[in-house]
Specification:
2 domains; 253 residues; membrane; Rossmann fold; AB hydrolase-1 domain-containing protein; 6-stranded mixed sheet; alpha/beta
C-alpha cells in the first residue's frame, strides 16, 4: 500500500510540474501567432491610413514650440527640429529618424535634450505622412522616404555635412538605405530595433498555423491592398527580411 501511494504521488508531482510547461508552450505559440498577426494588421492599417497630411496636422494641433516646417517638392510640408546653435564647421550632424508607428519627432525629445546639452547639433523630423509632415500620395516605398531625407538636408543647406544617422525600427531601414546611397557622408549608423533584421520564418509559420490568415483574407480592404503591397514593397521586403544578407553586404562595403 505504501509503495502504491508513493508511486501515485510521484506521478502526480510530475504531472503538476509538466502541465505549466505545456501551458506555457501553448501560450507562447498563441502569443507569437497573435504578435505576427498584429504586425501584419498594423502594416496594412498604416498603409490604408496614410493621408495627404500627418495625423497631428489633420487633427489641427498646433506645431510644438521650437519645431518648424519646410516645404519639400517631393511630399509637401515636413516638420523638423534643428538647433543650429551647435552647428560647427566640420562636425557631424546627428539625424534622428523615427519608426513607422512612432509619433514623429516627439519620440526623440529626451535624447534631443541629452545631445544638445552636450552641444551636439541634432536634426529630427517627421517621416512623410506622420506627425505634422505631409506626403505626396502614391507608393510609400523606402526610396520615397530616403528621397524625403535627401531633400530635407539639401533644403536646410546642410546636404554636404557629415552625418551620424540614428534610426528606430522602420527609421533604421531608411537610415541604412540612405547610408548605402551616401557612404561618403555617413560617419556612423545606429540602428535601434531595426525592422526586417530578424528571421521571419518562425513568425510566418506561427501565423500560418493559427488560422488568422483566413481571417485576414476575408477583410475587404486587406484584399484590395494585396496587389499594391506586392507591387510597391516586394523588392524592399525581400531585402529587409534577409537580415544576414543585409549585414554581410554592409560589412563588405
Amino acid at each position: 500500500t505504501h509503495t502504491h501511494t508513493h508511486t501515485h504521488t510521484h506521478s502526480h508531482t510530475h504531472t503538476l510540474r509538466l502541465r505549466p510547461a505545456f501551458q506555457m508552450l501553448g501560450s507562447m505559440k498563441v502569443v507569437g501567432a497573435v504578435g505576427a498577426a498584429s504586425v501584419a494588421l498594423a502594416a496594412l492599417y498604416w498603409r490604408r491610413r496614410v493621408m495627404p497630411i500627418g495625423p497631428c496636422a489633420a487633427d489641427g494641433r498646433p506645431l510644438p514650440s521650437g519645431d518648424q516646417q519646410v516645404m519639400l517638392s517631393g511630399n509637401g510640408l515636413t516638420r523638423y527640429h534643428l538647433n543650429i546653435r551647435w552647428l560647427k564647421e566640420g562636425e557631424c550632424i546627428v539625424v534622428l529618424i523615427h519608426g513607422m508607428t512612432s509619433p514623429g519627432v516627439d519620440v526623440w525629445r529626451p535624447l534631443i535634450a541629452c545631445l544638445e546639452a552636450r552641444r551636439r547639433c541634432v536634426l529630427a523630423y517627421d517621416v512623410a505622412g506622420r506627425g505634422w509632415s505631409h506626403c505626396a500620395g502614391g507608393p510609400m516605398t523606402i526610396g520615397y522616404h530616403v528621397r524625403q531625407l535627401e531633400e530635407l538636408l539639401d533644403t536646410l543647406s546642410i546636404g554636404d555635412r557629415p552625418l551620424e544617422l540614428v534610426g528606430l525600427s522602420f527609421g533604421a531601414v531608411i537610415a541604412s538605405n540612405f547610408a548605402v546611397r551616401h557612404r561618403d557622408r555617413v560617419r556612423r549608423l545606429v540602428m535601434i530595433a531595426p525592422a526586417g533584421l530578424f528571421p521571419p520564418r518562425d513568425y510566418l509559420g506561427l501565423l500560418a498555423g493559427s488560422g488568422l490568415l483566413g481571417l485576414l483574407a476575408r477583410v475587404r480592404w486587406a484584399a484590395r491592398c494585396r496587389a499594391s503591397l506586392k507591387r510597391d514593397y516586394a523588392r524592399e521586403l525581400r531585402a529587409m527580411t534577409d537580415g544576414g544578407a543585409v549585414l554581410r553586404a554592409y560589412i563588405a562595403n
